[in-house]
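Hi R.,

Here's the chain you asked about this morning:
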Amino acid sequence: TMGERADRGLLEDLQRRATGMAERFEPQDVANVLWALATMGEMTDRVQEAMERRATETAGRFDPQGVSNVLWSLAKMGERADRGLMEAMQRRATATAEEFDPQGVSNLFWALATMGEMADKGLLEAMQ
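And here is the predicted structure, written out as tokens:
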């Protein structure tokens, strides 16, 4: 039911499964997994690493909501994205800047600030 915490064993099994099939995930799959786990406050290092790796590999196909959700999720969990992922997500955000809605812009910059990351010059210019 809503408001109840999921069974820990089930969460661990689901995270193992997501880790094992991460190489087949599309960008929205990655963003959805990270968002769900961050919302529940449950994320293993292994699933985080697998999702970050896949997000970096597929960064050029993320839509603006996916970019902001990936970074929001990591920031919500108190994590810092690895350098490769951060650069890839900022490049993608720059390339799709005109498609971001206000919520996406807000989430993107909140995540960057929360992780102690500076938006690169290209991203700042694109978002103006």
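One quick note: The chain has seven helices and no strands.

Cheers,
M.
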